[in-house]
Hints:
The protein has eleven helices and 14 strands. It is of the alpha/beta class. The strands form five sheets. The chain has a six-stranded mixed beta sheet with strand order 9-6-5-2-1-10.
Amino acid sequence: MSSCYLLDSPKDELDSIYDRYHQVARLSKHAGGIGLSYSRIRARGSLIRGTNGHSNGIVPFLKTLDASVAAVNQGGRRKGAAAVYLETWHADIEEFLELRDNTGEDQRRTHNLNLAHWIPDEFMRRVDADTEWSLFSPADVPELVDLWGDAFDAAYRAAEAKGLARKTMPARELYGRMMRTLAQTGQGWMTFKDASNRTANQTAEPGRVVHSSNLCTEILEVTNDGETAVCNLGSVNLGAFVANGSIDWDRLDSTVRTAVTFLDRVVDINFYPTEQAGNSNSRWRPVGLGAMGLQDVFFQLRLPFDSPEARALSTKISERIMLAAYEASCDLAERPQEPPTGSGSGGTPGARCPRGPRRVPRAVCCTPTTTTPS
Length: 374
């Protein structure tokens, strides 16, 4: 019943890489969309000490993943879907940008994977200042994957000072290539590492790091080798709450509270294709309630989509859903038989829920239904 899964990068070793293939296949078999980091795998040309050879980089492994995603369909209904995230300092970033090109060597193309960048603020600062950007192999700087904010900036600059960079290039040149790839292929989504970790309510304690988003980029959760983050998503059909020329706010509140309760119960009764997914979901208990049918509301109320009245109503609906979801989470936490939050959550109660801890650390999200963008 879970919607999609977020996996940390495999370790930079063969057993871990192939174990991750197995996990992705099992998750995809049970209709899960996949978000997967690949930032720990050494870059092309890096030394393999066990054989005294040199690595072919991430591309051949992603080619295998691409074939696996296509082969293992989602519950027999459609082919699998996965998004691969790569940090912008990875020395294979330029080859990564070519993976969805329609020209070039097909053995170095992945036609089924979605691609996303995991961008630190330091890169954007250097783009703005028009200065140089250094590319590294994770084999030389393994610590960068688990750092963000000031700690990442300091470690990145220290690696530059030590001369560990595999290549240096103008930051704007790389950024330009990222923009061209995005325009030409629709791939290479822009997601921001530092902002994601700063705003996540799971990263309050050291060692908890968000390494990627999910397939549709609406979820941010911490991951590690033993925990596969899970998305438990649902949507409220807003068009069903229009009555007599207005929104039935009380019924909307009641429906949101019921939906959050049901989504929370999914955590307990769900089947988990992998042990890592079960570990994470029972620990954090994240749910994501969103909305669909906003255009139906505007149509029934005869509101132009771009009118100030429509924008104000959209804001009010979102706020109402958020507050009702947080209240439901607080109510669940106050039940004697329930723990107040997912064990080890470490999340803050939230400014709009002053009564105490919440049962679920995250209760709402922008679920990617086809009617949501309107």
